[in-house]
Q: What sequence folds into this?
């Protein structure tokens, strides 16, 4: 925990996602967390402005990219992992429970047998406690299901990337009503994160500026313990499950859930038709 990585945040206004470049303080090696590929869904047009900004920073700083990490299979934005890998190298990693996601949504999108449901689209499948290296800096993965079965929090030195396990204290927590989600599991996962040292820096995957405040993405374990509106200040598991279940029943589906799931369960690759053309499906009444 004595290692203090350099963290550079890139906010994507279209999806309220924060992507990160995490640099080993003792070498020119880095990782990218939760990249974004731009999509104009109405026009069926994909571009890479957000990813290009990440790539430009890595190149301008003379960094070597070791890892492209997905904290989970996002339902609100598309991953740019393979595009970044093509430009900079690095391994693409996700939690091993990706196979649960692939099995579930392989059925929803009526994917054929050519769609592998074994996580083989990724270079690495992380399990609880798995470690990996970013230069000389060791990272490790914490299994944090609840929002989705494949959610993981990644810890490097004195920083942790929370994915959707937590939002900023005034934002609370993420929904649990997607297939495989579970409010009780999310509460337990949050407690695991809150067992990290109080001064651990926590970086969020999303922020929506509650109450009109400026967008923020960094907090601490101590602040979450006392101030998180959903789990802080001693709120019980039963209270959380009741609140989360009632709240989730009022939420609309994310605008980009249909393209996001198809792309992200493939490690950021856009599916293709029989002629090799990129194409997305819209399952009617399937979500």
A:
């Amino acid at each position: 925990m004595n290692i203090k990585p350099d963290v550079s945040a890139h906010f994507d206004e279209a999806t309220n996602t924060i992507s990160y470049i995490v640099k080993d303080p003792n070498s020119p090696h880095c990782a990218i967390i939760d990249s974004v590929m731009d999509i104009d869904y109405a026009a069926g047009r994909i571009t890479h402005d957000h990813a290009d900004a990440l790539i430009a920073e890595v190149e301008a700083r003379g960094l070597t990219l070791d890892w492209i990490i997905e904290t989970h299979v996002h339902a609100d934005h598309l991953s740019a992992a393979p595009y970044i890998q093509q430009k900079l190298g690095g391994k693409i990693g996700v939690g091993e429970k990706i196979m649960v996601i692939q099995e579930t949504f392989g059925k929803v999108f009526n994917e054929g047998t050519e769609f592998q449901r074994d996580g083989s689209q990724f270079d690495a499948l992380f399990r609880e406690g798995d470690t990996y290296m970013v230069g000389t800096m060791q990272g490790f993965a914490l299994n944090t299901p609840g929002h989705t079965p494949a959610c993981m929090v990644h810890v490097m030195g004195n920083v942790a990337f929370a994915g959707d396990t937590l939002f900023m204290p005034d934002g609370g927590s993420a929904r649990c009503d997607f297939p495989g989600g579970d409010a009780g599991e999310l509460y337990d996962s949050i407690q695991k994160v809150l067992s990290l040292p109080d001064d651990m820096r926590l970086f969020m995957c999303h922020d929506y500026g509650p109450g009109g405040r400026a967008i923020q993405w960094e907090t601490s374990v101590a602040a979450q313990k006392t101030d998180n509106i959903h789990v802080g200040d001693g709120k019980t598991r039963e209270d959380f499950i009741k609140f989360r279940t009632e709240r989730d029943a009022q939420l609309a589906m994310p605008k980009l859930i249909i393209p996001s799931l198809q792309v992200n369960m493939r490690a950021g690759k856009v599916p293709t038709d029989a002629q090799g053309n990129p194409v997305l499906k819209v399952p009617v009444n399937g979500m």
In short: Helices lie at 49-60, 81-88, 98-108, 183-194, 221-227, 237-248, 257-264.
